[in-house]
Amino acid sequence: MNTQRADDDPERTPDLVTPGQRLGELFRSRLNELFAAAERRGERLTNREVVRWMSDHGYPIKDAYFSQLRSGRATSPSLKVIEGISAYFGVESSTFLDVDRRRAELDDLLEEHGVRSVATRAVGLSDENIDAIARLLDRFREVENLPPIRPEGAGDGSRGK
Description:
Blueprint: E1 4-5, E2 16-17, H1 21-40, H2 47-56, H3 63-71, H4 79-89, H5 99-112, H6 116-122, H7 127-143
Organism: Myceligenerans indicum
Protein name: Transcriptional regulator
């Protein structure tokens, strides 16, 4: 099987990936980011609500398939499914496929919120110190009545590496 290096993937970088795996993982990650963003705004979305809306608006999809897209078990949605999900969340379809755009958005976000310098200072620190910094930031968010942030990789034993 033909494989390629994934060292330049901004979302996840396994040593080797099969063709299509990188975009499948990117799609899953971005779909779940949209759900997380809605949750941070106080919205509790369910897969069923999104599936119902899509089906009602001409983008038929099954509950089970949508669940598989969110979990990463299904990795090749049709363009029609991508368009339906994009329409529901009010984002461009390219949100799910454009790696370079995502990098630029992340760079802009880091600059806009002044956190690039904080992240740069953390480079090279031990895991223990990174975890301590994360706990401090969580506490500061709590003091300022900001919603908690679920860490990358939470629940899968990794720290988003």
